[in-house]
């Protein structure tokens, strides 16, 4: 990424999001007054333009990128991890978790029945 200023209609983009200047620009670490200048044809530095693109055009909340998940993100972006395969695996995991959740609930119910049956039988014994 270069520091070459980027031309774009930021006012139009902001209005499409339904945000006021303070809301829109603060999400990319720019003051309201700085954002106002950018909306009035002042050059936007490339790093700021990239943050706007990531956050407002692609819906990526850059504040959630941490050292813990950065390696995974780099692997996805480089193609080392197949995103379609990762999504399919995540879906399978959700299905397994749902099945386990249902199974755990059924086991708890069965456990209650067994406890009642055993309790009845032990009470009947002398």
From TrEMBL:
Matches recorded under Pfam families: HTH_92 (PF22495)
Highest rank taxon of the organism: Bacteria
Domain RsaL-like HTH: 11-55
One Gene Ontology molecular-function label: DNA binding
Descriptive protein name: RsaL-like HTH domain-containing protein
């Amino acid at each position: 990424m270069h520091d070459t200023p980027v031309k774009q209609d930021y006012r139009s983009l902001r209005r499409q999001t339904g945000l006021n200047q303070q809301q829109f620009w603060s999400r990319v670490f720019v003051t309201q007054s700085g954002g106002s200048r950018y909306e009035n044809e002042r050059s936007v530095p490339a790093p700021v333009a990239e943050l706007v693109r990531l956050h407002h055009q692609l819906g990526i909340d850059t504040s959630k990128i941490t050292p813990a998940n950065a390696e995974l993100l780099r692997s996805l972006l480089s193609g080392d991890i197949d995103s379609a395969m990762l999504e399919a695996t995540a879906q399978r995991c959700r299905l397994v978790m749902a099945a386990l959740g249902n199974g755990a609930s059924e086991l708890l119910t069965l456990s209650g029945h067994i406890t009642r049956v055993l309790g009845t039988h032990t009470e009947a014994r002398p």
